Amino acid sequence: MRVLHVSSEVAPFAQSGGLADVVAGLPAAQAALGSDAAVCVPLYRGVREKLEQVGIALDEGFALPLELGSWSLTADIRLAQVGRVRYAFVDIPALFDRPGGLYGPGGASEHVDNHMRFGALGKAAVMAGPKLFGASLDVMHVHDWQGGPAAVFARAAEQRAHSVPSTIVATIHNLAYRGIFPKSVIADLGIPWSMFNVKQLEFYDQVSFLKGALGLADAVTTVSPTYAQEILTPERGEVLDGFLRWDVKRLVGIVNGIDTLFWDPANDKAIAHPFSRAAPKGKAACRAALAEEAKLPLHDREPLIGVIARMTGQKGLDLVADIVPWLATISGNVGARLVVLGAGEPEYEERFRWLARTFDKHVSTTIGFDIGFARRIYAGADLFLMPSRFEPCGLGQLYAMRYGTIPIVHAVGGLRDTVSDPGNAELAKGRGTGIRFDTASPEALAHAIWRGTQLFGDRTAFAKLRDAAMARDSSWMVSAHEYVQLYRSLRP
Questions:
Q1: Taking a C-beta distance cutoff of 8 angstroms, is the pair 138, 1 a contact?
Q2: What's the structural domain count of the chain?
Q3: Which positions ≥6 away from 394 have C-beta within 8 Å?
Q4: HEC per residue, 199-255
Q5: Confidence tier at 332 by pLDDT (50, 70, 90)
Q6: Minimal CA–CA distance to 289: which of 372, 346, 409?
Q7: Does some domain include residue 276?
Q8: Residue 329 needs a FRET pair 20 to 30 A away by CA distance; which of 86, 108, 346, 356 works?
Q9: Are residues 242 and 100 in the same domain?
Q10: What does the angle CA 32 – CA 41 – CA 367 come to, to the nearest 5 degrees?
């Protein structure tokens, strides 16, 4: 089966979030199952150097003339082999060789021509597909709104009787990002005006590239079954809940996986001491090293709690901040210490800096992101907080369980689907993998942390819980099987 993934990012070469991890992991797992998988992404500034650092060279590939409305461009498709997966990097310097982030110069700002940038990516992907495989595609799998134009151009080519993939699958990684632009972009990109309708691209007299992809796809997937149900409601549907219920051909939720070779405490060079499920003793050395690095005093009876997140309201960081005074004064024999790593909205960054100054014996705050430090938090913490108000899937809880750190999560989206909580009595027997709470409130989070501290206080129970968490199979192979079965069910 020939499968082309179209995405705006892929780890570790071009990454701003979890999308990049998915587009790196899923095609690799599909290739391991026997599919002929390829990935099409932009050649941003700095990608070539990142490839060279890991010994991967780009070949000259081939050139494609692109007509986008009144614009004539040339896309050079630079090829590289990454494991079993063929990568096609779309090289258009005028669009992608820019400083700053992938989507804009930084922060919340975006490039004003992002519709042209990802429109060019989409059209290049449609044209490059048959050249990459030497035959027509079986599946074009587009990710988020930036991959959406590929579905649009594929269906437009179908109308003109050109060679197109037999099946299109679109994945929603976060419905909040819908790729909305003025309707003038229809002419800018040379898209048929017939596609500007309520079942495809039209969104309140504007264009939504995500909506277009969802309406044109043979199937739509989300990154967890619960999120697939949540987006059918007005609360989480981002004004597309009715469209998703009535105009999408098929909606399926498939939980993300992780790269279990890359995320492996037995071989992780960034952590203080290797450990594994079979040999867990090194976890204690990682815990002690993390407390020292974070400059927090730590007693054997006190759990060390980790937080790694974008500092936004969506991630529930305000709930964490609200419970810090309580955390610093937990009564009884069990206290807790908190290690926070993240960056985001200035008000949250400053609040966590203040908390670290005010409760310096209980809270450590690092603003920014350091992958090495993140790994040491996953390895050294006892508990890991993810109080997101909504979370399509989430990867942090999967990394935490892989490293024997017990997740405490708000029971939404993929957090509900991946963390099993049958209650403390069952968790103490090693049945279940973490702690869930149902209400996004400081009180509910505080109670969940209290439950975690009670379990931590029972060494035998906590060891069983940690073993159960590490035993969970979070590999991409499970998800890849589900995607391949979906592809096969859609084939004409």
A1: yes
A2: 2
A3: 18, 386, 388, 409, 413, 414, 415, 418
A4: CCCEECCEEEHHHHHHHHCCEEEECCHHHHHHCCCCCCCCCCHHHHHHCCCCEEECC
A5: very low
A6: 372
A7: no
A8: 346
A9: yes
A10: 95
Q: Which two tokens stand for residue 228?
A: 């697939």
pTM of the full structure: 0.93
Residue 278: exposed, middle, or buried by beta-carbon count in 10 A (0-12, 13-18, 19+)?
A: exposed
CA gap 186, 170 in Å, rounded: 20
Q: What region does 18 belong to: left with phi over 0, alpha with psi -120 to 50, or beta?
A: alpha
pLDDT tens-digit readout, 386-429: 999 999 999 999 999 999 999 999 999 999 999 999 999 999 99
Quickly list H helices, 294-360. Answer: 317-327, 346-358
Q: Please report, for the chain, how many H helices and E strands are present, in that order.
A: 19, 18
Residues 445 and 411: beta-carbon distance below 8 Å: no
- Angstrom distance (rounded) from CA 300 to CA 26: 40
In the numeric block, which tokens belong to residue 204? 């309140």
Give the phi and the psi of residue 447 in degrees, each rounded to 5: -65, -40
Residues 84 and 67 placed together within one structural domain of the fold? yes
Residue from 226, 219, 174 nearest 485 by CA: 219
Q: Do 129 and 57 fall into the same domain? A: yes
Q: What is the CATH number of the domain that holds 248?
A: 3.40.50.2000
Tokens 């179209």 correspond to what residue? Answer: 6
What pLDDT digit, counting tens, does each position of 172-211 carry? 999 999 999 999 999 999 999 999 999 999 999 999 999 9
446 three-state secondary structure:
helix
Cα 42 to chain centroid, rounded: 18
Question: Token pair of 274, please?
Answer: 């290797």
Please check whether residues 248 and 311 belong to one and the same domain.
no
Contacts of 7 (CB under 8 A, 6+ apart): 19, 20, 23, 39, 40, 41, 142, 143, 144, 146, 147
Could you list the residue range(s) of the whole structural domain that residue 322 is in?
Answer: 282-474
Q: pLDDT tens, 287-321?
A: 999 999 999 999 898 999 999 999 999 999 999 99
Specify whether 465 is located in the same domain as 482. Answer: no
Which residues are paired to 206 by β-bridges? Answer: 182, 203
340 plus 485 within the same structural domain: no
